[in-house]
């Protein structure tokens, strides 16, 4: 734990309590960082200041970009539409394989280059034709007060909010956070406690609790992503257990994305994930009854497309982030057999395609 720079904006938070020894415990996530005055938690952005926990990155972003919503990845949430994506700095996990380490592992406030008030984010998203805003690049759990305020501002403009998260948070803040979200993609990083503790510095059960909460107690549309790392979480047995758990506890409709690892951060000694591993994982998960299993970070039109679980008709064709086939009715049903495809769909897909457009908020009045 380190000391925050004195000139950061300090936004008051309320998920904390004072311990008998005078330290203050942060209660946002199961790390339960216990802070002396002037200390920051492992996440870097929540700090003790004047006998309370404050958020030091409220209103500051590491940058904005318009992405295809499929990049989050969300394949069943307003397909083909643009989403305004941004993050801050820091993270409450310590994943050795982080693919966004330059932001999530940053300890430099200079990373936060774009001032971004919630109302301005909502207005810019609306003016640019984005259907939703994504809290991504690093985990919104650690800046939940800022994310909630942005989501509330977005709702007033008809813009939906998406959390891209590892799901590592405590019950009370989890309930508040997801009351304001419309969709989420949750990283289920593996299905062993060994993996979570050794490679992430966290615990599996907390993430499973988040997934069960989303399914049983919210109306949030959510999908799951598992990054398969050779030799760590890509065995047939683990993929079988993971997909069986999803089937048993969440049901067959929740989309599951298996994505390819590339060497990064502190795991440069592991090889990239072969495409055949993703295909094998998809086969196992579909064999366990999951309707919609996808492959990502590889060129695989079959593994990226959406099929009717009843008649196998291709409902949505995808080549990377470009949509082709569209065989769904206005209410999200197969136009051949009438089976319902779970998700949030409209009568027609968006046409954003694979474009990626950086946005600087200061250029908007």
Largest sheet: 9 strands, mixed
Order of helices and strands: EEEEEEEEEHEHEHEHEHHEHEHEHEEEE
At CATH level 3, the topology of the largest domain is: TIM Barrel
Identify the CATH class of the largest domain: Alpha Beta
Average pLDDT level: 93
Name of the CATH homologous superfamily of the largest domain? Aldolase class I
The share of residues in helices is: 10-25%
Distance N terminus to C terminus?
38 Å
Task: Please state roughly what percent of the residues sit in beta strands, choosing from under 5%, 5-15%, 15-25%, 25-35%, 35-45% or over 45%.
Answer: 15-25%
Class by SSE composition: alpha/beta
The parts where pLDDT drops under 50 for at least 5 residues are 1-8
Total tally of structural domains: 2
Number of H- or I-type helical stretches: 9
Strand order of the largest sheet: 16-15-14-13-12-11-9-8-20
CATH architecture of the largest domain: Alpha-Beta Barrel
What does this entry look like structurally?
The chain is of the alpha/beta class and 365 residues long. The protein has two domains: 11-55, no CATH class; 61-358, TIM Barrel (Alpha-Beta Barrel). 24% of the residues lie in helices and 21% in strands. It has helices at residues 101-104, 118-127, 144-156, 171-178, 193-200, 204-217, 236-249, 275-287, 301-304, and strands spanning 11-12, 16-18, 24-26, 34-35, 46-48, 53-55, 60-61, 64-68, 82-86, 114-115, 132-135, 160-165, 183-187, 221-228, 256-260, 293-296, 306-307, 314-319, 322-326, 357-359. Strands 16-15-14-13-12-11-9-8-20 form a nine-stranded mixed β-sheet. A three-stranded antiparallel β-sheet has the order 1-6-5, with no helix packed on it. A three-stranded antiparallel β-sheet has the order 2-3-4, with no helix packed on it. Helix 7 crosses helix 8 (275-287). The chain starts with 10 loop residues before the first strand and ends in a 6-residue tail after the last strand. The relative contact order is 0.13. The model is unreliable at 1-8 (pLDDT under 50).
């Amino acid at each position: 734990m380190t000391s925050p720079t004195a000139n950061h904006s300090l936004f008051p938070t309320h998920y904390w309590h004072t311990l008998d020894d005078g330290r203050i415990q942060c209660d946002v996530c199961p790390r339960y960082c216990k802070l002396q005055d002037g200390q920051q938690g492992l996440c870097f952005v929540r700090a003790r200041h004047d006998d309370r926990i404050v958020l030091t990155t409220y209103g500051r972003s590491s940058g904005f970009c318009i992405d295809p919503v499929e990049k989050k990845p969300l394949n069943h949430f307003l397909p083909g539409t643009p989403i305004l994506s941004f993050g801050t700095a820091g993270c409450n996990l310590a994943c050795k394989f982080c693919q966004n380490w330059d932001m999530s592992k940053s300890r430099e406030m200079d990373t936060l280059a774009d001032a971004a008030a919630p109302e301005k984010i909502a207005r810019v998203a609306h003016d640019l034709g984005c259907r939703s805003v994504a809290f991504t690049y690093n985990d919104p759990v650690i800046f939940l007060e800022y994310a909630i305020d942005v989501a509330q501002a977005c709702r007033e403009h008809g813009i939906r909010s998406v959390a891209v998260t590892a799901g590592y948070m405590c019950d009370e803040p989890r309930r508040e956070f997801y009351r304001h979200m419309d969709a989420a993609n949750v990283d289920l990083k593996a299905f062993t406690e060994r993996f979570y503790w050794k490679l992430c510095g966290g615990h599996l059960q907390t993430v499973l609790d988040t997934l069960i909460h989303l399914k049983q107690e919210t109306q949030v549309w959510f999908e799951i992503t598992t990054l398969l790392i050779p030799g760590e979480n890509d065995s047939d047995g683990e993929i079988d257990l993971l997909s069986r758990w999803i089937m048993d506890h969440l049901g067959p409709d929740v989309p599951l994305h298996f994505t390819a690892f590339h060497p990064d951060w502190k795991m440069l000694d592991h090889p990239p994930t072969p495409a055949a591993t993703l295909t094998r994982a998809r086969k196992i998960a579909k064999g366990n009854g999951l309707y919609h299993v996808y492959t990502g970070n590889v060129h695989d039109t079959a593994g990226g497309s959406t099929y009717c679980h009843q008649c196998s008709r291709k409902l949505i064709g995808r080549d990377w982030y470009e949509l082709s086939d569209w065989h769904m009715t206005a209410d999200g049903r197969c136009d051949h057999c009438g089976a319902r495809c779970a998700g949030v769909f409209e009568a027609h897909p968006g046409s954003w395609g694979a474009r990626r457009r950086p946005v600087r908020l200061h250029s908007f009045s």
